[in-house]
Predict the structure.
Amino acid sequence: MSTMVATRDAYGETLAEMGGENEDIVVLDADLSGSTKTGVFAKKFPERFFNMGIAEANMMGTAAGLAAVGKLPFVSTFAIFAAGRAWEQVRQSVAYPRANVKIVATHGGVTVGEDGGSHQSVEDLAIMRAIPNMTVIVPADGVETRSAIRAVAAYKGPVYVRLGRNKVPTIFDNNYRFEIGKGCEMAAGSDMTFVTTGLMTAQALIAADLLKKEGVSARVVHIGTIKPLDGEILLKAARETGAIVTAEEHSVIGGLGGAVAEFLSEHCPTRLKRVGVNDRFGTSGKAEELLKYFGLTPEDLADAAREVLARK
Amino acid sequence: MKATVAALEEKARELRVSIVKTLHKSQSGHTGGSLSAIDMITALYFHKMRHNPADPGWKGRDRFVLCKGHAAPALYAALADAGYFPREDLMMLRRLGSHLQGHPDSKSTPGVEVCTGSLGQGLSMAVGMAMGLKLDKLENRVYALLGDGELQEGQVWEAAMSGAHYRADNLCAFVDVNGLQIDGEVAKVMNVEPIADKFRAFGWNTMEIDGHDMAAILDALDRAETVKGRPTMIVARTVKGKGVPFFENKASYHGVPPSDEELPRALECLGEKS
């Protein structure tokens, strides 16, 4: 059994490490530092941590102002508030001027669990991806999160990183280096390809094992960067396997599935099935129950694979 | 001091001429709110602020955020006159390919610090700048200019809260209270008064002045520098369209440029031959 780490924990620890290496790093949170794990940084570097209160719009503008005088701001709150509540501030104050602001949103997707639909962001990837200049990243596990946070700190420009609430299996080994815009083949396969992001990559690896027992060779491609999308790895998968199932803990509209459908329908039309939340709001429940409820289990992925294969 | 005031008044008159000519040429843009703000902008760029047009990124500079970004023609007139870019560029305002966007864009225009135009966001950025400069223990000051209609945006009050909370005494903002917004009188559309009382209640140092009285503007800016532990809001009573009587106090001139027929009359009012 692999180790289980919440991506938000990996973020908090990495941020606190980087705080000692780069004095320009400042961190802003909107009264959720215990949950987003920016509190780890706050404890170590209280003078560079700004709690902005429950006021996300102002937090985004303040971060843009800090970036304008040379700081490297990391801004955190739940995905629903970072992307949803403050969307126009992110667009106008952060992305439009290409401000060097890193928005790291935790509690993305339905696995937020008991808090319910009001707090489960299933639209953030779509609305962040639509903004010019914006880079959108969804790590799969703690290892990738650590590497991705360092990569976005080194990159100059606005970034949206989506993290989760719960512990997820570690699927990358410690030598893995995240690169912005690069997908990663996690399992070889020739009959079809799972193109996945976030915690759905671990689900797809299990689904690929299920399918193997039926004699189906499923490839798993992890897309850690939703934008810019790794077209090369998608074209290769489409050409070599001829059938694609995308999977994400997000609406099927506008996120990874949307991005892959846009890309492939222009460049290499391929049989495609999008697995995600089907244009619905979330609901209260335990994370595991919700993955079942919304059809995001390995079994659901295997079903989707069988469906696209049947269309071949 | 008297000589300084007289020189700045003349500079403001010249910039008014520049604004009217620019807007007439572009046939698009915001006349009334540019003319109401220009005396304060003149005081900042030609007297108070430390800045270097030859080196817009100079670390020692003070910062200015035009929160009411639709008054961009006023900012551009000041930047061009100060030497950030050639005056002829003003004639390209709002044209495709011009570095002078309809609303201030830091990516395009030398001397513009941030992107504004979506009302309510500028003060947050100014607070962020002030916090960053304080963190580095720098002496640079941050100035901002809001509109009175803009105060209807809730984010302004989030920013007001945080500016006071983080004791941003290196921040000094104006509200250009010209009393009019696109749909009519601010008091009728959505009353924002009493403005000074509100900012005082939020923990700001406040002053109320006539926003066209150059001596009063300079005095307020000097006094703001002496305040410790809290930011300053200068509530400046102004006249929309100030300087051209037939533009004055008319909401209809919010987003309307001078016509061919109005241009010579407007320039004459400003003591300029067309």
